[in-house]
Amino acid sequence: MKKILLITLVLLGGVFTISAQEKPKTTTELNEVAIITTKKAIEQKADRTIFDFAGQASLNTGSVLEGIKKLPGLIASDIAGMMYQGKQLDVFMDGRPLNISSNELNAFLEGMPANAIEKIEIITQPGAEFPATSGGAILNIITNKNAKNYLSATYTNSTSFTSYKDVRWRVNNSILLSAKNKYFGWQLNFGQNYRESAVWTRLEKMENNTNSLLSATDADRVGRNNFVKSAVTFDIGKDRLLLNYDVNYNNNDSHTRGNGVGFSTNDASHTDGLRQDVVATYQKKFKDNARKLEFKFNLNSNTSDFELNPVGNPVSDLDNSSDQNLYNIKFDYSQPIKFSDEGKISVGSLYEELLFETESKGVKNLDYKRRTAASYLELQSRFNKMNFILGGRAEDYNITGNTDTAELNSFKQFRFFPNASAQYNFNKSMYFNVNYNKKITLPSTSALNPNNTNYQNPNVNYSGNPNLQPTIFDNYEVKLSAYDYAFIGYNMSSAKNQVINRVTLDNDRVINSNENVPEIKIHNFNVGMPIPYMLLTKGLKETMKMDVNPDTMNFLYVYAGYQFHQIPNVDTNGFWMFNLMSQIVLPKKVKFVANYNYTIPKGNYFYFIATKPFRHSFDVTFSKKMLKEQLTLSVYADDVFNSNRNEFNSFGTPLLISNKNDTRKFGFSVNYKLPTKNKLAKENPNLLNKDKKEENSILNQ
């Protein structure tokens, strides 16, 4: 292990030295000003990692879920949730929590085209200004674009197909319009996603060296998604009012054939989902631009209906629905403090209510209410080469409810969540950071829902658990990072009452549900670095003499992570994850990107043991910009060798769970920015709402 660390540090040192030659790229023309900024594919900050989606054809050609699964260090599993570098993720969109999880979250992300996304932030060290309910880390999906002082329009399309006996098509289209004048600015992003897919699942019982089939299903699915994201901003004197309205509608069908011991089924299911989000934000401006005051009010509605019935039978076996409404109001204020360089104090408060109801065949079987009141205070300071952050957030919870047969276990508590961070800056681009924060995760309404909104047959059942309790996290992290790309780090997340998915066996009937585990510790070591190919041809000395821009050069980006789940009374094994991303600029400026993911099997992922590699895929993309970079064409192939599949044992049971999706696909994408005659028009701030930009932090300066 010591040799591995020594070799890693030597390589990092070489990369840091090479990257130090990088210079910003700007151009100036007569009679007009054109600012050209090169977006970084992967950008490391002290508290977050930023992945550019808009400029990366290898990420934005499919659905958001497909793009997320390609990110190095991120695991998105249908049976065990979403995790980044050992930290459980809470998913936000444009700075606001989605408040959904598991199958509902996957369906939402699968229905949204990735070409509607600008970038994704994974905030591994959320400070006091973020809700304490963010748990281990936050995945923030940012759909914002910049408004301009003229009408701008962008059209994107992605078309692909899979061929597994039958050909299945996936098509998405989106249009982005925006403009701004002296009175107001507006922005409209709308589109659709049509997706045909298949999934094959087997559940087997392994006893006495023999395997017996409990359930085998073959599902053909059709997903239809339509979305609109709109924004209007008004300048009121020096202040600003922003209004946002988002709507997302899912209309999905599935045809599933199943067989197993004593049964054969042919079922059809249908899901309708409508999600609406309204936000009003008022930003107070001061003479000192470093002072900021913001008030925000948010309304969110999320309804879902699910039906399953045998083909040809109008009577539904399952007829379940849910209705979720969330209201919150918050304010945030920050201003400089003089006792240190670049010091800042931030304060804020939030009040939130969530109402959730479920019905089964017209009978209400869950009525759940959650109230949260919170306030925070955070100090940031800088002394010479040291940066410090010290904060605390107090939250008061009142969670009550009842099923159709009994009252839920109430949760009424006041808790304090501290956070602290220290950073030593070797120079402007290289730093060492240590961080601690305490967080909580409240059970999502998807996990609480007692109804089956997935699938069932005589040997398989899915259900939630309305009596789940919150999870408390203590998160620790150390990281050495340089020049936005290269890093080496270790983090440990200690969770009490961790909510996990369990798959158990009851008389040959497979039960999928959620439960609390008293204690789990997750250890994660990870390293990432770019390796320029010119090192192999010109050597280190010649490479160091050149101006190197990692975003336009030929390079190999290497990521490796080791994760170990420590569970009391369970003998667990860790597992290694590897990601290799290669970029080569071909003649005619055609960019070739190859992405390879591999996870070594036999490790424990919570209560599941991988018997075969998962996240095992090889993807390739060719892209080229034309017409003065207004048109981008891409051709791609995902999971070229058809190796991406899951196979797990469920701990404590003789169950073997395996599933395969139609992940091998081929397609093309088009992105066209309509030209404008106004070359002097300049970009203005984002209109689509977003919380807490990373540049607000003194870290990384």
Task: Kindly describe this structure.
By secondary structure, this protein is mostly beta strands. The chain is 7% helix and 61% strand. The strands form 3 sheets. The chain has a 22-stranded antiparallel β-barrel. A hairpin with a 7-residue loop joins strand 20 and strand 21. The radius of gyration is 25 Å and the shape is globular. The relative contact order is 0.16. The N terminus and C terminus are likely disordered.
Summary keywords:
disordered C terminus; mainly beta; 22-stranded antiparallel barrel; 8-stranded mixed sheet
Helix content: under 10%
The total count of strands amounts to 37
Question: Would you tell me the structural class of the helices and strands?
Answer: mainly beta
Span of the ends, CA to CA: 33 Å
Strand content: over 45%
Radius of gyration: 25 Å
Low-confidence stretches: 1-37, 678-701
> Biggest sheet: strands, sense, closure?
22 strands, antiparallel, barrel
Overall 3D shape: globular
Q: Mean pLDDT, rounded to whole units?
A: 84
Q: What is the number of helical segments per DSSP (H or I, 4+ residues)?
A: 6
Topology:
Elements: H1 2-19, E1 42-44, E2 48-52, H2 57-60, H3 64-68, E3 74-77, E4 81-84, E5 87-93, E6 96-97, H4 102-111, E7 119-123, E8 137-142, E9 146-148, E10 152-164, E11 166-180, E12 184-207, E13 210-236, E14 239-260, E15 263-284, E16 292-310, E17 318-337, E18 341-360, E19 363-383, E20 386-403, E21 411-427, E22 430-441, H5 445-448, E23 460-462, E24 471-482, E25 486-506, E26 509-532, H6 534-544, E27 555-566, E28 575-586, E29 590-599, E30 604-605, E31 608-610, E32 617-626, E33 631-638, E34 646-650, E35 655-661, E36 665-673, E37 683-686
Parallel strand pairs: 5-8, 23-26
Antiparallel strand pairs: 1-2, 2-7, 3-4, 4-5, 5-6, 7-8, 9-37, 10-11, 10-36, 11-12, 12-13, 12-35, 13-14, 14-15, 15-16, 16-17, 17-18, 18-19, 19-20, 20-21, 21-22, 22-24, 24-25, 25-26, 26-27, 27-28, 28-29, 29-32, 30-31, 31-34, 32-33, 33-36, 34-35
